[in-house]
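Key idea: predict the complex, not the pieces.
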Amino acid sequence: MTEVRNGMTRRDDVAGRDGIVRTGGPAAVEVRGLTKTFGRVAAVQGMSFTAPAGKVTGFLGPNGSGKTTTLRMVLGLVRPDAGEALIGGVRYGGLDRPRRTVGALLEATSFHPGRRARDHLRVLAEAAQVPGSRVDEVLDQVDLAPAARRRVREFSLGMRQRLGLASALLGDPQVLLLDDPANGLDPAGIAWLRGLLRGLADEGRTVVVASHVLSEVAQTVDHVVIVSDGQLRFAGPLGEIGGTNSALESAFLKLTATAG
Amino acid sequence: MLPMIRSEFRKLSTIRGPWLLLAAGPVLVVAGVTGLVQSGANVHDPAIQSKALAHVGLAALFTLIFGILAVAGEYRHGTVTDTFLSFPGRGRVVAAKLAVYGLAGAAAGLVSSAVAILVTAAWWAAKGGSFHLSAAGTWQTVGGGVAANVAFAAIGVGVGALIRNLAAAIAAALAWIALIEGIAGQLLGSGLARWLPFYASEALDRTSVIGSARLLPQWGGGLLLAAYAAIFACAAIVTTLRRDVT
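Result:
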């Protein structure tokens, strides 16, 4: 319990600094008091944090801790019971061209199995009003060009994950919200993903990576948001909780241990 | 609205399932007309010519399921998430689907009509009858059949948005056609039964050409079916706006 309080105190410290971050990042993601209950399950309770622009933010928590629900609320797919989420100061539903502002990867199974990879992206390109040439660019970017004409049902999980990343990148967005992007990738793929995320953040984009696998994250992230049981436990720069893999892991385990 | 419509067309043109489903319409027409002739129908009777052409309206069963795929199919494969990320204005997404699937339903109805005319003319020629496009009821039957194909595609979009589980939506639609409406019609009596959707469609597509005194007039059936499509569409838009996409 004390540890949790420590976490809360730290978050408050960081919230002060976040004021600076907010003004500095026009494409920052701000979550303010998001709350959602499904039936009798309080999935997310009073969640608040900021993911700054130009940084990779690790959104960490055990399975079922409310990460996916939070991301879905940010993206306007799930309506919060309370609170709001802003992207560059605007709700997702109010964005002029959402795919050109925000790229999202939510799950690797959201493809029609009979559609070819390239056609999947062409559907999204029509929707996002981006030129067809972007389709081939993102296919190259995720190393999927050789499989572009294959139907998605023939894809491995790792290939679906790459196609999902290509979908997120299609609109060349300033904000990327990625739920468990390393899922299904082999070690080489994970190394590639780290480089991709790093490069995107270095271009000034806001990158949020939800994960429960700490080792994938520790080497990549600048900023950490730790959640458990639908509640925020910590939000701040990685350096504040140690910065090394083992320090992050012990902090994670302490902060997410169920209190009571 | 235009990017939504183009994106919907692109979705349809890049998978095979919906087209196989729509192709079943003309196949049903060929089989139905052939069956009618083989069972000894009088090819000299203009009313029988209309009855043969009325198979176009029966093909609307396939445009109904085609329409159900529009929304329920997207939930089935999870692609609805991408759709709503592209277009957070969900009501307009449903409206775009109504337009695109209604148009595809019209195209399917026209193909079924052409096939029905060709097959009926061929059988009539083979059996020594005389097929006349100008015969009484021909264009009324064909036109009503095409309209039924459009209306049921639109109703399908609504049903699929209301019942997002694909299997459940198709099962509910088929059960309604095969069982529920027949029983409800008997319980209500023919005075009220003619206001039910499939009784209305029979009036519209003239699938019961003779002895239709209990049905609404054709235009009445068409208007009623359009009203059903509108009710389903409104209910679909309202529920789609409200529901969480998880």
